[in-house]
Amino acid sequence: xxxxxxxxxxxxxxxxxxxxxxxxxxxxxxxxxxxxxxxxxxxxxxxxxxxxxxxxxxxxxxxxxxxxxxxxxxxxxxxxxxxxxxxxxxxxxxxxxxxxxxxxxxxxxxxxxxxxxxxxxxxxxxxxxxxxxxxxxxxxxxxxxxxxxxxxxxxxxxxxxxxxxxxxxxxxxxxxxxxxxxxxxxxxxxxxxxxxxxxxxxxxxxxxxxxxxxxxxxxxxxxxxxxxxxxxxxxxxxxxxxxxxxxxxxxxxxxxxxxxxxxxxxxxxxxxxxxxxxxxxxxxxxxxxxxxxxxxxxxxxxxxxxxxxxxxxxxxxxxxxxxxxxxxxxxxxxxxxxxxxxxxxxxxxxxxxxxxxxxxxxxxxxxxxxxxxxxxxxxxxxxxxxxxxxxxxxxxxxxxxxxxxxxxxxxxxxxxxxxxxxxxxxxxxxxxxxxxxxxxxxxxxxxxxxxxxxxxxxxxxxxxxxxxxxxxxxxxxxxxxxxxxxx
Amino acid sequence: xxxxxxxxxxxxxxxxxxxxxxxxxxxxxxxxxxxxxxxxxxxxxxxxxxxxxxxxxxxxxxxxxxxxxxxxxxxxxxxxxxxxxxxxxxxxxxxxxxxxxxxxxxxxxxxxxxxxxxxxxxxxxxxxxxxxxxxxxxxxxxxxxxxxxxxxxxxxxxxxxxxxxxxxxxxxxxxxxxxxxxxxxxxxxxxxxxxxxxxxxxxxxxxxxxxxxxxxxxxxxxxxxxxxxxxxxxxxxxxxxxxxxxxxxxxxxxxxxxxxxxxxxxxxxxxxxxxxxxxxxxxxxxxxxxxxxxxxxxxxxxxxxxxxxxxxxxxxxxxxxxxxxxxxxxxxxxxxxxxxxxxxxxxxxxxxxxxxxxxxxxxxxxxxxxxx
Lengths: 487, 372
What we know:
The complex is a heterodimer of chains A (487) and B (372).
Chain A: H1 14-27, E1 32-33, H2 36-41, E2 53-57, H3 62-75, E3 79-82, E4 98-102, E5 109-112, E6 117-121, H4 126-133, E7 138-139, H5 152-158, H6 165-168, E8 175-181, E9 187-191, H7 202-206, E10 215-222, E11 224-225, E12 229-237, H8 240-252, E13 259-264, H9 265-275, E14 285-293, H10 295-311, E15 316-319, H11 323-334, H12 336-339, E16 346-349, E17 352-353, H13 359-372, E18 376-382, E19 387-394, H14 401-418, H15 443-456
Parallel strand pairs in A: 2-4, 3-4
Antiparallel strand pairs in A: 1-2, 5-6, 6-10, 7-11, 8-9, 8-10, 12-14, 12-15, 13-14, 13-18, 16-19, 17-19, 18-19
Helix pairs in contact in A: 1-3, 8-10, 9-11, 13-14
Chain B: H1 2-11, E1 28-30, H2 35-47, E2 52-55, E3 71-74, E4 81-85, E5 90-94, H3 99-107, E6 111-112, H4 124-129, H5 137-140, E7 147-154, E8 159-163, H6 175-179, E9 187-195, E10 197-198, E11 202-208, E12 221-224, E13 229-235, H7 237-247, E14 250-252, E15 265-270, H8 276-280, E16 288-292, E17 297-302, H9 307-319, E18 323-328, H10 331-336, H11 347-357
Parallel strand pairs in B: 1-3, 2-3
Antiparallel strand pairs in B: 4-5, 5-9, 6-10, 7-8, 7-9, 11-13, 11-14, 12-13, 15-17, 15-18, 16-17
């Protein structure tokens, strides 16, 4: 697949000149970027790894995407789809010189208010979609913290979540169909606007496949009615255990709030310095809970959350008085990662999941690991889902720090898996966690996943080296029962 | 045939089961008690290209292409609730657990897997394999949204696990969701982990004479029948009271789910929700139906089977991107009328996918659209 060694300069190669010329014939000069600076810029996502870009393309139609795929396939150059590049797992980082297909120009939105669905171009920003549908009283439920910058295509690729997927589910629960360009440059329509399309649910396997099965150019998404009422509460605790017990208590009381978010003290301090939302910086943990729905439901459920928080020794409970205060509290939560920039120039944001009842045990171990590697760590998490986001702030120019960060991140992942958890809840596997996959899956499991990829993309044209560790498709079980003469 | 049958009985002696009502007489019926045993059965069948029909409660055997099996694999002995974590809202169950038994058990702690409300003898594995959802999908999404983890015994006898026992997970390809609605084409769905939801404190059914737009903010379920509409509410007492007042009509303080529709032929008509009011006008007046607004499904009971009327209805539905699916019918109906209708696009891809899991195509062969 890779026609040259990495050491060979891309620009000097004859194949590169030919490839760029063919792409420019298709898209024009302006939508093909092959200068060193732009190739450098597109070599990275929101994570900390950098890859090799041969050329960047900016198609504006599905037809152009299909044609780019055909050209790349002819040249046997890998194709790496890309949205806004906000991913954190290296999913959009090419591992060898590749044609990057930036989908940000696919920005059409077509709303069907009666069916409460919309066809959305891969390049539409998550928040733009909800703003577009707001006049109809509808929104797109998944709301990653990066929602002002990330694209729907990226959400589909990573099966993105966000604080509100506690009650509403992740992106896959909101995608009814995808339009996808396959490895031979054909455009497939997978799924549809009718429920339970007949045949295998291929759409479901494409969502979350991190651009390894094809390029999704449009998605038909479900829109969710905006809640008529909402209430956001903040509770502060002297002990992390009490905050976690509140989370369990709320679930045990029979309600699943719209969101249940938690921040530890280091994170709260960083956020407060950044946003000034009045977060209590002396608390060991802060819980942000939101209940939404019918006005009568919201009143009763907010009261229940307050009662549970009080009985778990909350030292302070604050109910947002109005929309402005609600927005401010959420701004604090969603700006958590930006806030860290004040503390250190670089950060590594982890994403793992544990059964919600194991939160505290795992958190204690996470602090211990950070201590051992001498790293500043702070935690913000979707507590209701058991989805942890330990964040390590560091200065990459410091000698050897990256090795420590990676070693600590690996240990955190191991601790989560040992607690019955999983490697990623919403950021994806990409490059970052690919080699940890054997922690959760057997050779047979990984082989089955590799076979599945093979059915879509036998030559590994799309985003190679992602999700599955190298060599996953080497397991050959043969027949469990030798072919005998028993009949 | 007799010699094949007796040889099979010898080979699979360790797994033989009592006969099951409704199962073809010629088939050898096995009921493995573990996934490893099931893998041995499927591995043996695959090695000799013998068609296998997977049998749970038998309630959805009317769906899909007809299968003529040499072996019937019953999930009757795969019947344990393996691991229920009420505080994590997850449960791990084997395929043969009856939906009713599971939901009864979960209700002891006021939880639900939001599986079909009137399941008859259906099993969890059967409901997942057939991709069947209950009325509450309006609020909680279809059954496939409940799938967190699966242990799949592939057609060629591998035991493959996908997903995980956590409520939110993007670790690897979403195999658990993929098996929902796969009708055994990938193999036996041996064990699943499902996401649970709390059962609300107050439960109410509001009966209306006329349709309303939307029926208020996100009701639990809505069923429109020919002469009445039922709106199902869940939540706190205060909420349910307030919403009942807004809806009007009469009410009862429980969920009154309708039973199966009458008629010799059952249909599931699926189309974009906006088309629901229009399609109801095309349904002959002697047929009973349950229309699910917001979902886009109409379940129909046909009294007098008439292939021509059904074909016309199917043409109308398919021309609008939907499907008309047979859910139950006497044997002769399947000869006159395809169980699925026009196969979906991308059948080649589906065929390649199936081949990765069931290379000899032995589990429920021909059950999926397009004879797959």
